């Protein structure tokens, strides 16, 4: 049985009462569908949309993109009935649309999100939800005034692994946290230089709408497709990658923001004018736990010039405490301690956690906690949580203030590298 049929079977059986709040949503009678639109049909927008469509109560109505080939592809992928728009304001003006997914480059996130909230739409916004820290206040205000649901696209926080890590850290099993460590390398082959597709012409692309409020530039496909390389549109490797780990750390520890951040990095290889953000960055973050009783440091590194190590920190990082360590992935938490691992009472506690599968003793000093392999993936759970929150008027798992704090921590790291100073 695969994950989906497991869920479907549950809903058929009506096995709701002993289930988690997450699975409970499947067991309710079908209701009016939540009608959503996608703004930004690139790589992640497409993945988001496909995942959102796996949630039974969600219906895709419209797609917006400024690049014609992607708009045309939307109908092929999701149906001829779709309304297609190149101006997101037309999507927001449609009263039949309840929610939007924003998956444009980073420099558009806050502007579109504020407009969407002011138009009465619920918002699922890709990370980082702000491009500059100065954008935070207006976004929080728009969400508060609208009362609409907001979810940041850091799907890891919905994973069973991160949920397990939160309970395990709180249980004291590794003692007070002192260090978190995560590394990112490039996917092999990523060093190849950029090649524009033949259809990337000014007639196929609304260039001014890509630029938005960023400094004016003559049309260049490289900036459009490799926008992550440029600080006018992206937020460097910190906003692209670190934000996922930071969101998970904030979720697990309850911390909101680092006291200070120091980064170093450089353009070590791509100094051919193809980027103004580093291809290698290392950052140290200084955090105090919410009870102010202990402090911990976070070390994050990303090196896109390393095509060999295959490290992906957002889905695999270490948390080190005085009594032991936790290696956290989205499906497992592996604990190693100095003495015998004390698991007393833990299994019962974890049994209450949606998606918990099993506890496996590897040795007296090592225990692994894992997700039920039949339980849905983090991306699906994150979207389910979003639609669930809309339907039940409950808080989402990554609401706007949480998103602003995690995004700001990533932006502090980026800023520190660019300015070569402690932030
Ligand atoms: N959550 C995750 O795991 C994850 C993974 C990858 C990317 N992302 C985020 O998703 C976002 C998109 O990244 P991507 O890799 O899909 O980029 P992409 O370049 O593949 O897609 C961006 C799309 O937005 C469109 N676009 C640009 N400006 C627009 C505008 N003003 N109005 C409408 N459409 C516009 C582009 O034409 C393009 O199709 C980024 O913010 C990125 O950080 C998140």
Automatic annotation (TrEMBL):
Q: Where is the Gfo/Idh/MocA-like oxidoreductase N-terminal domain?
A: 34-153
- Record Pfam families: GFO_IDH_MocA (PF01408)
A molecular-function term among this protein's GO annotations: nucleotide binding
Classification via InterPro entries: Gfo/Idh/MocA-like_OxRdtase_N, Gfo/Idh/MocA_oxidrdct_glycsds, NAD(P)-bd_dom_sf
Q: Which domain of life is it from?
A: Bacteria
Q: Which UniProt keywords apply?
A: Oxidoreductase
This chain's protein is named Gfo/Idh/MocA family oxidoreductase
Q: What species is given as this protein's source?
A: Sphingobacterium zhuxiongii
